[in-house]
Structures are given as C-alpha cells and as structure tokens.
Write a structure and sequence with these properties.
With 247 residues, the protein is of the alpha/beta class. 41% of the residues lie in helices and 15% in strands. The protein has one domain: Alpha-Beta Barrel (TIM Barrel), CATH 3.20.20.70. Strand 7, helix 9 and strand 8 form a beta-alpha-beta unit. Bound molecules: 1,3-dihydroxyacetonephosphate.
Length: 247
C-alpha cells in the first residue's frame, strides 16, 4: 500500500526561535512515522529548517514558486532556487494565492511545471468556495482546476501530489465530513485515471481544518491519501497526533 503524506503548511507564521523549538519537537516525535512527513515553510526559513530536519524523516517544502525561470521578477523565488535549498515539495495554487494574488488555473499549471522540471514535487491545491458549493458547482470547479494542470503537464501528472482544500473549510474550524471529502477525492481520482495509467499512485491529500480529533476518520477514506494541515501544524503535539493517525 502506498504511504500517505502529512504536510504542514505554516503559511506566514514562524520565527527563527519558534521554528527551532517546533521542528526539534517534530523530529523527536516522528522517528517512527509510518507516513511521509513534510513541513512547507516561508521561503526565508528554508535553509534553517533544512538544517534542523537533516537526518530525520521530515522533508522540507515551500509554499509557492515563480512561474518564471529567472530574470527581472523582483520578489519572486524560482524553482531552481528552491531546489538549491533541498526543497522536496512546493505548494502550488493554494486558495490563498488564487484569492489574494490572482493566480489563475493557467498560472498554477505553469508553476506545477516549473517545480517538476526542477525535481520538486508540486502539491497542487484545488477546492471550491462556499458560494460554489452552495450552487452545486463543486465538481465542476475542482475538475476545471485540475484539467488545466493535466493539460500543461501531460503524462507527468502522475508525479504531482494533489490537495483537495475546500476554501470554506480553511482556517474556519469547519471540516468537510469524511464522506464529503471522499466524494470529491473520488471525482479527482477518476479524472486522473482518464489522463494517466498511474492514477492510483498519485497522492490526493485533504486540507481544511484537519486536526488531531478528525484526522483518523478522514485518513481512513479510500481516496484520501494524507493531509495538508494549516493551523494544527504549528503545534508539535497536534501535528504529531495527525502523523500518528496516518499510515
Ligand atoms: P487549516 O488547517 O488552518 O484550516 O489550513 C488548511 C490549509 O490551508 C492548508 O494548506
């Protein structure tokens, strides 16, 4: 059976001092983890966290990557630069970037391509807003978002990690029920099957108010292959409980 992935998304949180305490506790508590583990940290901390996780099971991820390879793009960070710091994963198309930075499906697809070309696994985020869910448009929205990434990346699509993050469940304490999440994951799996012979090996992780109390049920669903954890990844004990619930 494939190993699940539990990835923390720190978002814009952390400090040199806080990171050290958090990561040391995670390293100490995750040695026996049955799943893959990653922390997606703000870019300035990649080097620090890379040093702290050395020799442990924890991989380091970034939260975004430039759609450009290099050049006059002030403030941007390229896939090559992330790779230079041993970055293993990179979030792409998180709803906060789609919402606050105007990232379109096409831009997200190119970012995934940049990451793959640099040997970084893109964690491509898809998910509907509350208004879209209430209008019965959930499937249409997530399929459109994934279709753009499949279109640009072709058969390399089996190399990505896909994250289903319903926007209404992010940071709200409202989680999709395991059944609701599974239903969308199954739709995404079917879409991947139509694009690649290797759809079964693609990890489709769930994100949106996953915590120590609800992780077990979510992670028991047949098409939920892990979690992308925001708030609860900033507390070592909570994140370690989620890791312990995964296989
Ligand atoms: P929360 O776990 O804080 O809801 O955040 C989820 C998320 O956006 C992870 O990328």
């Amino acid at each position: 059976m494939k190993k699940q992935l539990i990835a923390g998304n720190w978002k814009m949180n952390g400090s040199v001092t806080a990171n050290e305490a958090l990561v040391k506790a995670l390293v100490a508590g995750s040695a026996q983890a049955a799943c893959h583990v990653a922390v997606c940290v703000p870019a300035p901390y990649l080097a620090q966290v890379q040093g702290l996780v050395a020799g442990s099971v924890i991989a380091v991820g970034a939260q975004d990557v430039s759609q450009h390879e290099s050049g006059a793009f002030t403030g941007e960070v390229s896939a090559g630069m992330l790779k230079d710091f041993g970055t293993r994963y990179c979030l792409v198309g998180h709803s906060e970037r789609r919402q606050h930075h105007g990232e379109t499906d096409a831009v997200v697809a190119i970012k995934a391509q940049r990451a793959l070309a640099a040997g970084i696994t893109p964690v491509v985020c898809v998910g509907e807003t509350l208004a879209e869910r209430e209008a019965g448009r959930t499937e249409e929205v997530v399929k459109r978002q994934l279709a753009a990434v499949i279109h640009t990346n072709g058969h390399c699509i089996s190399e990505i990690v896909l994250a289903y993050e319903p926007v209404w469940a992010i940071g709200t304490g409202k989680t999709a029920t395991p059944e609701e999440a599974q239903q969308v994951h199954a739709v995404l799996r079917a879409q991947l099957r139509a694009a690649t012979d290797h759809a079964e090996r693609v990890l489709i992780v769930y994100g949106g108010s996953m915590n120590a109390a609800n992780a077990n049920q979510l992670l028991s669903q047949p098409d939920i292959d892990g979690g992308l954890v925001g708030g609860a990844s900033l507390k070592a004990a909570d994140f370690l409980s989620i890791i312990a619930a995964a296989h």
